[in-house]
Amino acid sequence: MIEATPHINRVIISGGGTGGHIFPAIAIANEIKNRNEQVEILFIGAKGKMEMTRIPAAGYDIIGLPISGFQRRFAISNFVLPFKIIISLLKARRAIKRFKPQLVIGVGGYASGPTLKMAGMLGVPTAIQEQNSFPGKTNVMLSNKAHVICTAYDGLENFFPKEKIQLTGNPVRGELGKRNLSKEEACQVFDLKSDKETILILGGSLGAKTLNDVMLKTIKSNLAKDVQIIWQCGTYYFEQIEALVSNDLSENIKLKAFISRMDAAYEAADVIISRAGALSVSELCLLGKPVILVPSPNVAEDHQTKNAMSLVGANAALLVKDKEAINKLMECALSLLSNRELSESLARNILTFAKPNATRDIVNECEKIVNK
């Protein structure tokens, strides 16, 4: 008789800074808890970052470290960074010794560095969940002591020890893989017509200035075309943009600060325009829709471009550079709508990158470590 693998009882999950790190962390925690309701889970994040509110809202305890990033431009904060690192290492060490986890999981972000470093020094097994196709320097440095590295992309042997890599994909929102809505039902959510072609523009929770500038420039010409647009401009820009375009909005253009029903937005869309953050790309791969990626130039190591190129190189998405978007993006989207052959090819190819069971597979790998 084959014995079932015992579940994890005590675990620390560390990282954050952006939704792209926080969502996988919560998804992993939820999967661990689904398998063992008695599990004790502690998060370690960075003080002042969004995980300090998002993690408690998800029902988990969190400790904050006074860690921050190095500023590439001259900044006073760079001079105190060494002291923050030392204090963060000591605080992480104290938390690990008190909590006594079986495993520490790092999901990226400032806090994961000192936490995984101390876990390794204390002999606690560690796992890394790397979301991007081009890893950050911290995860590369931590990889030698890690027991497993769960990646979302192939070809990371140049950064991590090959024998530790497991290609699992990134955790995504569970409802996205279910496809329970018809296009008619999805369009009703946004008061749109199901017989019209629809472009979905996603700038992330805070918004993307370039994508908003494209819409501001082209909104009047878009009104003349028989196309619908769901425009998610972000909470940071919403009030300003709403004041600018209130007279230009019509039943064909829906301006949103934030989209709570992403399942409906994705199902309603015929073409999707998005930044190329790791989690966004992983979600888009599940949908089988034609996608245009506009990588943000304002991220470390230009990793959004590298994420995008992993799809573009396989003819699974189109890329428009940020600096060219103002003149080319909307033209590209409208052209894609009219090119059925290309749209179907992109939609078919992007599905080959889908990893719908990523969260399950990551936790499976973590359980293997605990039970060795």
Question: In words, what does this structure look like?
Answer:
It is a single chain. The protein has 372 residues and is α/β, with parallel strands linked by helices. It has two domains: 10-171 and 356-370, Glycogen Phosphorylase B (Rossmann fold, 3-Layer(aba) Sandwich); 175-353, Glycogen Phosphorylase B (Rossmann fold), CATH 3.40.50.2000. 42% of the residues lie in helices and 16% in strands. It is built from 14 helices and 13 strands. The protein has helices at residues 19-35, 51-57, 77-99, 112-121, 137-142, 183-189, 209-223, 238-245, 262-268, 278-287, 303-312, 325-338, 340-350, 358-370, and strands at residues 10-14, 40-46, 61-65, 103-106, 126-130, 148-151, 165-167, 197-202, 227-232, 253-256, 271-274, 291-293, 318-319. The chain has a seven-stranded parallel sheet with strand order 3-2-1-4-5-6-7, sandwiched between helices. Helix 4 (112-121) links the parallel strand 4 and strand 5. The longest helix is centred in the first third of the chain and has 23 residues, at 77-99. The two termini are 19 Å apart.
